[in-house]
């Protein structure tokens, strides 16, 4: 088999997207695999956010697989990992994972993770070969958006002048560093803005950024039609964390309505027990459950004292 692993090219994004839907839709047993994920999208914006982290598997001139790495400073994750069903069980996934792991190492990532099917021993065994070990479940949850009372100061990245954007980006780095040393969402925030995927909310306390939420909304993003999806959110791990977490979620819910979305989506690792329980208490219900796997096998920022939202699909 004349297979090569190389960087994905921009003209291959649409093909990689169709391959992603075919692979995942086939695995979960959809009658029409190409309907997997609906009108949500994952490939295009992840490619343009970090082209050097997007890898392709080519066989006889045809794209037959892809894998994309995300760089959040000291933390990174990869996915979606897609292989054409015709090449399953032939070692293609291993080669795509190896390429991404090399890239994560080159970036200086200290903690790497992924999100996979919780009931697939095959997937778990594959990732364990590369040093990733299963930990807690992640619940991808949803609720209908309704107006919320807001008694706090906040900013929206899209409404700021460039100089103000630069200031809040630096403030975001200070916040995420408190969550996990070196964690950096600045590139993600800028990509959401530059690629028109959604917006980022900054929660303020006495003009200090104490929370942030990076959100996608609408078709062609990770949210999909009628959804506002919290890609990442966190508040400072301090005594007021619970109250600030509640305020931040209220801001997200109100923004969902402001931009014409009817649902709010968010992922939470169940190791962040209080954050998970709070989502349940305010009406979120689980739609998808996955298991996180990390390398090395340490908690990273999946800890009970952290009020953060994300999932690494």
Automatic annotation (TrEMBL):
InterPro entries membership: Acyl_CoA_acyltransferase, Bact_Acetyltransf, GNAT_dom
Pfam family, one: Acetyltransf_1
CDD domains: NAT_SF (cd04301)
Keyword Acyltransferase: yes
GO MF annotation terms: acyltransferase activity, transferring groups other than amino-acyl groups
Domain N-acetyltransferase: start-end pairs: 3-146
Keywords (A to Z) from UniProt: Acyltransferase, Transferase
PANTHER family linked: AMINOALKYLPHOSPHONATE N-ACETYLTRANSFERASE-RELATED-RELATED
Listed name of the protein: GCN5-related N-acetyltransferase
Originating organism: Richelia sinica FACHB-800
Lineage: Bacteria, Bacillati, Cyanobacteriota, Cyanophyceae, Nostocales
């Amino acid at each position: 088999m004349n297979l090569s692993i190389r960087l994905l090219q921009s003209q291959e994004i649409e093909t990689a997207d169709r391959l992603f839907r075919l692979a995942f839709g086939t695995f979960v047993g959809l009658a029409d695999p190409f309907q997997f994920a609906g009108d949500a999208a994952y490939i295009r914006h992840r490619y343009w956010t970090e082209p050097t982290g997007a890898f392709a598997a080519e066989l006889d001139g045809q794209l037959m697989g892809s894998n994309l790495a995300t760089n959040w400073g000291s933390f990174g994750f990869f996915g979606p990992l897609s292989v054409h069903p015709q090449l399953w069980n032939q070692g293609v996934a291993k080669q795509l994972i190896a390429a991404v792991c090399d890239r994560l190492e080159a970036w200086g990532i200290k903690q790497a993770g992924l999100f996979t099917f919780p009931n697939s021993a095959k997937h778990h065994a594959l990732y364990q070969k590369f040093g990733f070990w299963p930990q807690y479940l992640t619940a991808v949850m949803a609720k209908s958006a309704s107006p919320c009372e807001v008694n706090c100061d906040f900013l929206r990245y899209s409404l700021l002048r460039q100089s103000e954007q630069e200031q809040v980006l630096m403030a975001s780095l200070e916040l995420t560093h408190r969550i996990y040393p070196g964690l950096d969402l600045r590139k993600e925030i800028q990509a959401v803005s530059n690629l028109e995927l959604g917006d980022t909310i900054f929660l303020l306390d006495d003009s200090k950024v104490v929370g942030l939420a990076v959100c996608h909304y609408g078709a062609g993003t990770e949210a999909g039609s009628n959804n506002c999806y919290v890609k990442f959110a966190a508040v400072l791990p301090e005594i007021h964390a619970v109250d600030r977490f509640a305020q931040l979620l209220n801001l997200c819910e109100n923004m969902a309505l402001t931009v014409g979305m009817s649902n709010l989506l968010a992922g939470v690792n169940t190791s962040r027990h209080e954050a998970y329980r709070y989502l349940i208490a305010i009406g979120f219900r689980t739609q998808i459950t996955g298991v996180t796997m990390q390398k090395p096998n340490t908690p990273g920022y999946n800890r009970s004292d952290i009020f953060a939202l994300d999932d690494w699909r």
